[in-house]
Design goal:
It contains 20 helices and 11 strands. By secondary structure, the protein is α/β, with parallel strands linked by helices. It folds into 2 domains: 276 residues, NAD(P)-binding Rossmann-like Domain (Rossmann fold, 3-Layer(aba) Sandwich); 202 residues, N-(1-d-carboxylethyl)-l-norvaline Dehydrogenase, domain 2, CATH 1.10.1040.10. The strands form 3 sheets. A 5-stranded parallel β-sheet has the order 5-2-1-6-7, with helices on both faces. A hairpin with a 2-residue loop joins β3 and β4. α7 runs antiparallel to α8. It binds D-mannonic acid.
């Protein structure tokens, strides 16, 4: 047996390992994906792997927009990798075959553009994280001074950014008389389809006004809600999975049993029948998106900042503390749920109950530090939109503002014991400068952070109900630490 997972070793895998139920050689490329991280490989690539057993048109060419790491892992494996679904009752392994090829965009610009421009490519999917859209998180507009956008507008034939690649490929298709692909964003952005459409249209308009009109009129960007918890793969995972496979997989992905995908059904060029494998097609994704971003991601970020500060390494560790469970349940029930407007039949109580169980899953080592990344890009849709809705109703925001305050305490870059925090955020340098200037004063730290318009907009800093609550919570975090603040938390 080969010691590496690949086409040759597939047949020798142990019986319990599920593998592609189709002939990989017969597959065509129908989808180009940008951002081939763990999330894509545990979510869209899995639904598509299922579809390929019925319809060979939808193979994926996946690109990394930055590092060659995934290529280095998957290329020697013929694109194959293991999906490990973990719960308390064990681990199920499945080899996924839907990714036909991995491209490293920075060194293969032309190859990626060719794949995107090919007539048989009908859909371009994206998981490039919030910051990959090069937009202003508070307004959702293209950030025209973003260095990658400045570069891509000047050299639009050799782009670097996701919007740059998409618009250049659309330009080529239009020039060649090939209909545009559908752009399917699978990131946790508010109204993600509309946001990506706005960003692409503006970018295209800056390249050429006629191209801008073309994007506005003819490119479809359905919104989606995607959900599956996918922690970063650890070396322990690699070793355990290699043992079970009897072959090495350089980059398996580890996830939970739960998975959900809600998609707006507007694909004029056709689409895979993902609904045959659990995806839901609906007319309006927004209620589901609010439910997920506000309940799941809002809780996640709150748990991540507070849990990290309290010394908890993972979400499951944080959820083993009953005071944190109480806080999160209160956040969901009292402060988030009243802002949601779900279609008839949606069972929020069951959804929230399942969420608490998912967060508790001890088989997933989802680090609080991982979720804490990129807070400047996440806060607006996870917590601040809910805050705005609550303020409009003059309703309580005690827990929401504790989450915001915990983020502020976290980005100071020094934890409660005086040890450094490795803050990863596209705004890290600016945030750190603000924190250093504040010199440990919660009032000054909060006031200066409120002035970061890209996060808080123009309205929230002017609302004393919001600013006062954040400052009070921040003062508590400084004064008594996160663990005690959560243990003694009382909503007003
Ligand atoms: C997490 C999400 O890292 C994060 O910020 O909140 O990636 C979360 O695990 C997914 O959205 C779950 O669907």
């Amino acid at each position: 047996m080969s010691d590496r997972l690949n086409e040759d070793s597939l047949a020798d895998l142990p019986e319990g390992v599920r593998r592609p139920a189709y002939d990989r050689k017969a597959i065509k490329t129908g989808i180009v994906h940008l951002g081939v991280g763990a999330f894509h490989r545990a979510h869209q690539a899995v639904y598509t792997d299922d579809v390929l057993s019925q319809d060979p048109r939808w193979g994926i060419v996946a690109a990394s927009l930055r590092s060659p790491d995934t290529y280095d892992a998957l290329d020697p494996q013929d694109g194959l990798y293991t999906l490990a679904v973990r719960s308390q009752s064990g681990e199920a392994l499945r080899v996924i075959g839907s990714i036909r090829q991995v491209i490293v965009a920075p060194r293969e610009v032309e190859q990626l553009l060719e794949a995107m421009s090919a007539p048989q490519t009908r859909i371009v999917t994206l998981t490039v994280t919030e910051k990959g859209y090069c937009h202003d998180p508070a307004t959702g507009a293209l950030n025209e001074s973003h260095p990658d956008i400045v570069h891509d507008l000047e050299f639009h034939r050799t782009p670097r950014s996701a919007p740059g690649f998409i618009v250049e490929a659309l330009r080529r298709r239009r020039a060649a008389g090939v209909p545009p692909f559908t752009v399917l964003t699978c990131d946790n952005l508010p109204s993600n389809g509309r946001t990506v459409k706005r960003v692409l249209t503006r970018f295209a308009e800056l390249v050429d006004p006629a191209l801008g009109r073309f994007v506005a009129d003819e490119v479809f960007c359905p919104s989606t809600m995607v959900d599956r918890i996918v922690p970063a793969t650890s070396d322990q995972d690699r070793a355990r999975i290699a043992q079970a496979l009897g072959a090495t997989d350089a980059w398996p992905v580890v996830t939970e049993p739960f998975t959900q995908w809600v998609i707006e059904d507007s694909f004029p060029q056709g689409r895979p029948a993902w609904e045959a494998f659990g995806a839901e097609f609906v007319a309006d994704v927004e209620p589901y998106e609010h439910m997920k971003l506000r309940l799941l991601n809002g809780s996640h970020s709150t748990l991540a900042y507070l849990g990290y500060l309290a010394g908890y390494e993972t979400v499951a560790d944080t959820m083993a503390d009953p005071a944190f469970v109480r806080l999160i349940q209160g956040l969901m029930d009292e402060e988030v749920t009243p802002t949601l407007h779900m279609p008839a039949g949606a069972d929020l109580t069951a959804y929230k109950r399942a969420l608490v169980e998912r967060f508790r899953n001890p088989a997933l080592k989802h680090r609080t530090w991982q979720i804490a990344m990129d807070g400047s890009q996440k806060l607006p849709q996870r917590l601040l939109g809910t805050v705005r809705d609550r303020l409009r109703e003059n309703a309580g925001i005690g827990r929401l503002t504790l989450g915001v305050a915990a983020w502020m305490r976290y980005i100071t870059g020094v934890d409660e014991k005086g040890a450094p925090i490795d803050v990863r955020d596209p705004m890290a340098a600016r945030l750190r400068e603000i924190a250093d200037r504040a010199g440990g004063s919660p009032e000054k730290l909060a006031a200066d952070l409120f002035s970061v318009r890209e996060i808080f907009g123009d309205d929230l800093p002017k609302d004393p109900r919001f600013t006062k609550a954040v400052i009070e919570n921040l003062a508590r975090l400084y004064g008594q630490g996160a663990k005690r603040t959560v243990a003694e938390f009382k909503a007003d």
